[in-house]
Amino acid sequence: MSDFASPIPAGARVREGRDAYLSENGFTLAAYDEPWTKASFAGVDFAVPNTKKHRWAIMLHDLHHVATGYGTDIAGEGEISAWELRGGLRGLDLYVSAIVMSGALAGLLLHPVRTLRAFKAGKRARPLWTKGVQEGAGYEGLMGLSVGELRERLGVPAQGVADGKRGLHKNAPVAAAV
User: Fold this and answer.
1) Sign of the torsion formed by the C-alpha atoms of 66, 82, 172 and 62
2) Would you say 145 and 51 are in contact if contact means Cβ atoms under 8 Å apart?
3) CA nearest 125: which of 87, 89, 90?
4) Cβ distance 78 to 57 under 8 Å?
5) In a domain, 6, yes or no
6) Domains: count for the chain
7) Left if phi > 0, otherwise alpha if psi is -120 to 50, otherwise beta: which for 136?
8) Domain-located, residue 90
Protein backbone atom coordinates (compact mmCIF):
# COMPACT_ATOMS: atom_id res chain seq x y z
CA MET A 1 0.00 0.00 0.00
CA SER A 2 1.18 3.52 -0.74
CA ASP A 3 2.69 5.58 2.03
CA PHE A 4 1.19 8.64 0.36
CA ALA A 5 -2.35 9.95 0.40
CA SER A 6 -3.82 11.06 -2.89
CA PRO A 7 -2.29 13.01 -4.47
CA ILE A 8 1.36 12.28 -3.82
CA PRO A 9 2.78 15.31 -1.98
CA ALA A 10 4.65 17.86 -4.09
CA GLY A 11 7.68 17.62 -1.78
CA ALA A 12 8.16 13.88 -2.30
CA ARG A 13 10.89 12.79 -4.71
CA VAL A 14 9.71 11.40 -8.04
CA ARG A 15 11.51 8.11 -7.29
CA GLU A 16 9.54 7.79 -4.02
CA GLY A 17 6.29 8.60 -5.80
CA ARG A 18 6.99 6.14 -8.60
CA ASP A 19 7.93 3.39 -6.16
CA ALA A 20 4.77 4.01 -4.09
CA TYR A 21 2.68 3.96 -7.28
CA LEU A 22 4.26 0.66 -8.39
CA SER A 23 3.83 -0.88 -4.93
CA GLU A 24 0.18 0.06 -4.43
CA ASN A 25 -0.62 -1.38 -7.87
CA GLY A 26 1.45 -4.57 -7.54
CA PHE A 27 3.72 -3.47 -10.39
CA THR A 28 7.51 -3.90 -10.42
CA LEU A 29 10.51 -2.22 -11.99
CA ALA A 30 11.43 -5.60 -13.49
CA ALA A 31 8.18 -5.62 -15.48
CA TYR A 32 9.46 -2.68 -17.54
CA ASP A 33 11.99 -5.08 -19.10
CA GLU A 34 9.68 -8.05 -19.71
CA PRO A 35 9.07 -8.98 -23.39
CA TRP A 36 5.30 -8.91 -22.76
CA THR A 37 3.30 -6.69 -20.42
CA LYS A 38 -0.07 -7.28 -18.79
CA ALA A 39 -3.06 -5.27 -19.94
CA SER A 40 -6.81 -5.53 -19.56
CA PHE A 41 -9.84 -4.23 -21.34
CA ALA A 42 -13.46 -4.59 -20.22
CA GLY A 43 -12.33 -6.88 -17.41
CA VAL A 44 -10.44 -9.24 -19.73
CA ASP A 45 -6.73 -9.66 -19.00
CA PHE A 46 -4.26 -10.20 -21.83
CA ALA A 47 -0.62 -9.59 -22.74
CA VAL A 48 0.74 -7.05 -25.23
CA PRO A 49 4.21 -6.87 -26.74
CA ASN A 50 6.54 -4.70 -24.70
CA THR A 51 8.43 -3.11 -27.59
CA LYS A 52 11.30 -0.71 -26.93
CA LYS A 53 9.02 2.29 -27.60
CA HIS A 54 6.24 0.81 -25.43
CA ARG A 55 8.71 0.24 -22.57
CA TRP A 56 9.89 3.85 -22.79
CA ALA A 57 6.33 5.18 -22.98
CA ILE A 58 4.96 3.07 -20.11
CA MET A 59 7.76 4.24 -17.82
CA LEU A 60 6.81 7.85 -18.63
CA HIS A 61 3.08 7.04 -18.44
CA ASP A 62 3.61 5.81 -14.87
CA LEU A 63 5.25 9.14 -14.00
CA HIS A 64 2.18 10.87 -15.45
CA HIS A 65 0.10 8.90 -12.93
CA VAL A 66 2.42 10.08 -10.14
CA ALA A 67 2.14 13.73 -11.19
CA THR A 68 -1.57 13.89 -11.96
CA GLY A 69 -2.93 11.58 -9.27
CA TYR A 70 -5.13 9.66 -11.72
CA GLY A 71 -5.71 6.06 -10.69
CA THR A 72 -5.30 2.76 -12.48
CA ASP A 73 -8.92 1.62 -12.43
CA ILE A 74 -10.89 1.92 -15.68
CA ALA A 75 -11.93 5.49 -14.92
CA GLY A 76 -8.38 6.52 -13.98
CA GLU A 77 -6.84 5.00 -17.09
CA GLY A 78 -9.45 6.80 -19.18
CA GLU A 79 -8.54 10.03 -17.42
CA ILE A 80 -4.78 9.66 -17.82
CA SER A 81 -5.19 8.65 -21.47
CA ALA A 82 -7.41 11.68 -22.17
CA TRP A 83 -4.91 13.96 -20.40
CA GLU A 84 -2.04 12.48 -22.43
CA LEU A 85 -4.01 12.68 -25.68
CA ARG A 86 -4.81 16.35 -25.14
CA GLY A 87 -1.16 17.05 -24.35
CA GLY A 88 -0.07 15.41 -27.58
CA LEU A 89 1.23 12.12 -28.86
CA ARG A 90 4.33 13.50 -30.59
CA GLY A 91 7.22 11.16 -29.94
CA LEU A 92 5.07 8.04 -29.78
CA ASP A 93 4.79 5.40 -32.48
CA LEU A 94 1.49 4.21 -33.92
CA TYR A 95 1.27 1.21 -31.57
CA VAL A 96 1.63 3.25 -28.38
CA SER A 97 -0.53 6.08 -29.75
CA ALA A 98 -3.29 3.54 -30.41
CA ILE A 99 -3.09 2.34 -26.80
CA VAL A 100 -3.47 5.92 -25.52
CA MET A 101 -6.37 6.63 -27.89
CA SER A 102 -8.08 3.35 -26.92
CA GLY A 103 -7.79 4.23 -23.24
CA ALA A 104 -9.30 7.66 -23.83
CA LEU A 105 -12.14 6.17 -25.91
CA ALA A 106 -12.91 3.55 -23.25
CA GLY A 107 -12.92 6.27 -20.61
CA LEU A 108 -15.23 8.41 -22.73
CA LEU A 109 -17.67 5.52 -23.15
CA LEU A 110 -17.61 4.29 -19.54
CA HIS A 111 -16.87 7.45 -17.54
CA PRO A 112 -17.62 10.38 -19.86
CA VAL A 113 -17.72 13.20 -17.29
CA ARG A 114 -14.42 12.26 -15.67
CA THR A 115 -12.73 11.63 -19.01
CA LEU A 116 -13.89 14.94 -20.48
CA ARG A 117 -12.75 16.74 -17.31
CA ALA A 118 -9.31 15.13 -17.69
CA PHE A 119 -9.18 16.07 -21.38
CA LYS A 120 -9.92 19.66 -20.40
CA ALA A 121 -7.24 19.53 -17.68
CA GLY A 122 -4.77 18.38 -20.34
CA LYS A 123 -5.03 21.69 -22.22
CA ARG A 124 -1.72 22.85 -20.74
CA ALA A 125 -0.27 19.35 -20.45
CA ARG A 126 3.21 18.60 -21.68
CA PRO A 127 3.54 14.80 -21.50
CA LEU A 128 7.06 13.54 -20.92
CA TRP A 129 7.33 12.08 -24.41
CA THR A 130 6.83 15.46 -26.09
CA LYS A 131 9.95 17.27 -27.25
CA GLY A 132 11.59 19.48 -24.70
CA VAL A 133 10.03 18.18 -21.49
CA GLN A 134 12.93 15.84 -20.68
CA GLU A 135 15.71 18.10 -21.97
CA GLY A 136 18.79 17.76 -19.80
CA ALA A 137 17.22 15.15 -17.53
CA GLY A 138 16.41 11.77 -19.06
CA TYR A 139 14.44 9.24 -17.06
CA GLU A 140 16.99 8.81 -14.25
CA GLY A 141 17.36 12.58 -13.99
CA LEU A 142 13.62 12.87 -13.44
CA MET A 143 13.90 10.56 -10.42
CA GLY A 144 15.80 13.24 -8.48
CA LEU A 145 13.16 15.92 -9.00
CA SER A 146 10.44 16.60 -6.49
CA VAL A 147 6.93 15.65 -7.57
CA GLY A 148 6.18 19.39 -7.53
CA GLU A 149 9.02 20.04 -10.00
CA LEU A 150 7.76 17.20 -12.20
CA ARG A 151 4.26 18.69 -12.13
CA GLU A 152 5.67 22.05 -13.16
CA ARG A 153 7.45 20.47 -16.16
CA LEU A 154 4.26 18.71 -17.17
CA GLY A 155 1.98 21.73 -16.82
CA VAL A 156 0.13 20.09 -13.92
CA PRO A 157 -1.13 22.20 -10.99
CA ALA A 158 0.94 21.92 -7.80
CA GLN A 159 -1.66 19.66 -6.13
CA GLY A 160 -2.18 17.38 -9.16
CA VAL A 161 -5.35 17.28 -11.23
CA ALA A 162 -7.28 14.20 -10.07
CA ASP A 163 -10.35 14.68 -7.91
CA GLY A 164 -10.45 12.47 -4.86
CA LYS A 165 -8.74 9.19 -4.00
CA ARG A 166 -6.90 7.18 -6.65
CA GLY A 167 -8.89 4.18 -7.83
CA LEU A 168 -6.85 1.02 -8.34
CA HIS A 169 -7.16 -1.68 -10.99
CA LYS A 170 -8.93 -4.88 -9.98
CA ASN A 171 -5.70 -6.87 -9.47
CA ALA A 172 -3.95 -4.30 -7.27
CA PRO A 173 -2.94 -5.73 -3.87
CA VAL A 174 -4.91 -3.09 -2.00
CA ALA A 175 -7.99 -3.59 -4.19
CA ALA A 176 -7.79 -7.36 -3.63
CA ALA A 177 -7.52 -6.87 0.15
CA VAL A 178 -10.68 -4.74 0.35
Assistant:
1) negative
2) no
3) 87
4) no
5) no
6) 1
7) left
8) yes
Give the 3-state secondary structure of residue 37: strand
Q: Which parts of the chain fold into alpha helices (H)?
A: 14-25, 52-68, 74-87, 94-110, 112-121, 138-143, 147-154, 173-177
Q: 13 by DSSP, 3-state: which? A: strand
Count other C-beta atoms under 10 Å from residue 142's C-beta.
Answer: 21
Walk along the chain (178 residues) in steps of 10 and give the mean pLDDT of each run.
66 96 94 90 83 94 96 94 95 93 95 96 91 69 94 92 80 62
Q: Which of 151, 69, 91, 87 is nearest to 124 (CA)?
A: 87
Q: Flag whether 9 is in a domain.
A: no
Backbone phi, psi, residue 6, to 5°: -95, 130
Query: Is 146 among the domain residues?
Result: yes
Which candidate, 101, 154, 78, places its Cα nearest to that of 123?
154
Whether the predicted model's global pTM rises above the 0.70 cut: yes
Range of the domain at 28: 14-177
